[in-house]
Amino acid sequence: MYKSCIFDLDGTIIDTIKSMTHSISLTMGNFGYAPVDEAHTKQFVGDGYRRLVERALLYSGDKELAHYEEALSIYEKTFRENCLYKVKAYDGMPELLTYLKEKGIKIGVLTNKGHERAVECVEAVYGKDFFDQIIGEGNGIKVKPDPAGALLMADRFLLPPSSCLYFGDTNTDMKTGRNAGMDTVGVTWGFRDRQELEAFQPKYIISHPSEIRHVFE
């Protein structure tokens, strides 16, 4: 029986794609580049904002990344101002999380989004102190797929990794769970397709949050 569920943020518990698409498009606009469409943003996110900016610049034509450092600074400011732009919970996720809490399952968020923005985003959608732990990028913790954050969360829960179930929507998440020695759940409502998730052989693949309830019954 799993005693904890650890969730990725973007594309897993909260639909944040519009906020990131809006922010990266505004950033690229500072250099005269066209907006980045939502489909490409979905491919660029997942490995932290530095990689998002790098990928967006390359896509926009800055092959030498001449604007990289300036773009990082602009994106940080822009996203700070727009991180809640049209964000919303995925259908069925509030119900699943409430169900888990009622079952006594510890729930946490582990994300490559900056820690302050992660807390702001999660609390805006789910309220303060809804999750037992939130860990975002920063404070010396390596970004996923490094398992450090997942292992730290398990340690804070006083649980072995084997009793934690890790949820995510990208290959980065599947690698994170595997690297941490946790069973993984691939979710198909996020930013990547089922084929990408299947390549990493998660314990479960679900297309709606309610589909994992049976594991806890």
Automatic annotation (TrEMBL):
Transmembrane segments: none annotated. InterPro entries: HAD-like_hydrolase_sf, HAD-like_sf, HAD-SF_hydro_IA, HAD_2, HAD_sf, PGP-like_dom2. Pfam families: HAD_2 (PF13419). NCBIfam families: HAD-SF-IA-v1 (TIGR01549), HAD-SF-IA-v3 (TIGR01509). This is Haloacid dehalogenase. It comes from Lacrimispora amygdalina.
